[in-house]
Amino acid sequence: MNSTELQEEFSYHNFLNNEKWKLNLPTYEKISSELVFDTPKVSVIIANYNNAPYLERMLDSLVNQTISLEKLQLLFIDDKSTDNSAEIVEKYLQKYSSIEFYQLKENTGGAHGPRNVGILNARGDYLVFLDADDWYDENALQYMSESLENSGDDMGFFGLVQSINGKLTLKSKAYFFDGNKKERDIQELSSAFYEWLGPQGIMVKRSLIEKYNLHFPSQRVGDDVTFFYEAMRFSKKITQGERLTTYLNRDDNNVSLSKTVNRDFMISWLRALSYINQTFPDDISKEKFLARRLEWLVYNFGLRRDVGYKFSLKRIIDFKMNIDRYLGKINFDPAIYFRTGARKIVWKYLLLEDYRGVVRFNRWHSLRHIMKKYLGIMRREENQYFYPVLNSKIPKIAINMRAIAVNRVENHVMIQIYTNGIFNHFEIRNKLQPFDRSKLSTKKVSLTEYRVDIPLEIDIEMYDFWVIYNNYQEQKIERIENLLSK
Length: 486
Hints:
alpha+beta, four-stranded antiparallel beta sheet, Glycosyltransferase, EC 2.4.-.-, transferase
């Protein structure tokens, strides 16, 4: 694709830094609480479409914030829902202050429209964007805003957990694993930092958004990551906070979400990456960002079979042709940042345009993955485990990490680690409150063995046991519950 064609696409989807995005927004009707405040500290922008089952939980988390409603502007922007969302919000309007309800007269087809309406109507010093099915810890907005006030930074990243049918797990660990930080140069961030960049757990100064005319591009996917990466680039330095702030809802959505990973999804993401690649200079931040996102696309369209774009030779060819179309020649090797050998191999095949090689590798590696996951079949070579080797012509793939508890003496557990990564530490984590986590005292006794101290009083049914490696990757310790229960 030539430069003119790309610019036309960028313009059509409102990527560009001009006023066109404001002109394309639908009109709306607005109703507000009886009492709203002119100078709130934080504006919360909530995009909604048919999320009625989750709204009470989300709204309760906002009206009970410790920062108090006097310091909040709650902008609920409804994208012409067809459920009873409006009735729920109106009940809160009658009972609580600081709520502004914007009902769009036309559906915009994605969260970008409501979020942009929110940006234009926000009055707070700081902005956050909350999905209507997610919710906040009650101290979140006070903690986030105070962190930015104290640091003077324009942008902050804070702790979040993912909830799947009530089970909580840590999400985007690079945001908070390093503890509290301020004035952190984005060029120093790891590639893992770019795994998420969704709206959850992020706060941005409104002055930064206004200064650089930041807005969400008009496409259903990639709009939020584009927005927040642009904000990072203009911010240059960020604040990080180690406390839990945000709950990301993924209840029963995994299957439906995978079906939205279709061809339009692929093109939209490549268009967003192309825009970022052309807008910002080559440096380590952009390199890590593009690498992490390319790795994710390689996983979805080179390895997965359960998405909305059916796996086939045609899909592989189409994927590579569009990488070339939108990104052209990439001036670095993104595979050095990829986390698994399988993704690195698919990328190598794509570079060689060996599309049938991708298909063969996908078929064999899918089988090997099933054998490992369900039958526990692996092959060990010295200090590393590998997936089963079923065909000598298919490259062998190392398993990033295995951690196995092998012996216990009182409160000491011997754990063997087999990895191609870099060991960081062991930790325990509360299953119900995963931010309740502690490092375990450890002594290395051989090349692969570690002696780990486990508190005698611990309730093993309440905790998981993890190895943290490569800074932010993690692996559960096998067999440790059996040893500790004896």
